[in-house]
Task: structure prediction
Amino acid sequence: MRRIIFIDVDDVLANFTRAFLARVNATNGTSFTYKDHQNWDFSCVLPPGQTWRQHISDEEFWATLPLHPWADELMQAIWETGWEYAYLSAIPLGTAFMGRKKWLDEHFQDGTNVAPHKRLIIAERKDFVVGGADILIEDSPQHIEACRLTGASVLAISHPWNQGIDGLLTPQQVIDEIRAL
Result:
């Protein structure tokens, strides 16, 4: 039987929030930190009239995101399961997509002939896609809740912006869950 794991990229593998806040702070002369980001839409760190997409429109931003400290260990655990896997992301198309392809290819070579970016699925509505997977690893409150409604098994990584969600796990707990498969 074929088993599939979908992995969100931003703030599961890539430290999107810290990179985004660094851009916002440099642009606006602010000093927001990771813990200041309490809601999913970034409105708590943006001045009126600015949108989060204004700060992330170039390919370089997406291609140079830092890894979370647990990212390599999580991917190694996924590879060791022997299950199929794909990166499931809701990034904007265009320059973000091109940067994401470069980022994946730089960080997650799994020893197969498949380039990591060939495993990238872009979907604004992850709940439309996740039914084909056994597990989704995610951090977005909207995607966690929507995908759980489909009956999917969601391993939800805890961050300041998703504290109202039930069943949040630390990155190490997610890694342990994957290793237990």
